Amino acid sequence: MADPVSPHVSVTAANGEAVRQFVLGGMGIARFSDFMIDADIASGRVVELFPGQLDIPPLAVSALYLTRASGLRRL
Questions:
Q1: Positive or negative, the Cα torsion across 17, 21, 23, 24?
Q2: CA distance readout (Å), 21 to 9, 16, 49, 64
Q3: How crowded is residue 55: how many other Cβ atoms within 10 Å of its Cβ?
Q4: In angstroms, rounded to a whole number, what is the distance separating the alpha carbons of residues 20 and 40?
Q5: What is the full DSSP assignment across 50-61?
Q6: How many domains does the chain have?
Q7: Which one-letter DSSP state was computed for residue 26?
Q8: What phi and psi, each to the nearest 5 degrees, are found at residue 23?
């Protein structure tokens, strides 16, 4: 097995759209959810580097919220 690669990171961002713009501008590679990058792959603006090799199983996400905030305590 090959040794792991440690990438050199020169730009970081917590916003997916900002990362997408960096990738479209040729600043590097990134891992995206399909819905964020499918149109760019289909149009040829970007290419998928490891098709089918980095697939992860779907993960269920749940969110809860109160319908009224009157019972919330302030900190």
A1: positive
A2: 16, 9, 17, 32
A3: 9
A4: 10
A5: STTTS-------
A6: 1
A7: T
A8: -65, -45
Read off the pLDDT of residues 35-70 as tens digits, 9 standing for 90 and up.
999 999 999 999 998 888 877 788 888 888 777 766
CA 69 to chain centre: 32
- CA atoms of 53 and 31, how far apart (whole Å): 12
Crossing angle of the two packed helices 34-43 and 16-24, in degrees rounded to 10: 20
Query: What string of H, E and C letters represents the secondary structure of 16-35?
Result: HHHHHHHHHCCCCCCCCCHH
Q: How far apart are CA 10 and CA 27, in angstroms?
A: 9
The whole domain housing 59 covers 1-75
- Give the predicted TM-score (pTM) of the model: 0.62
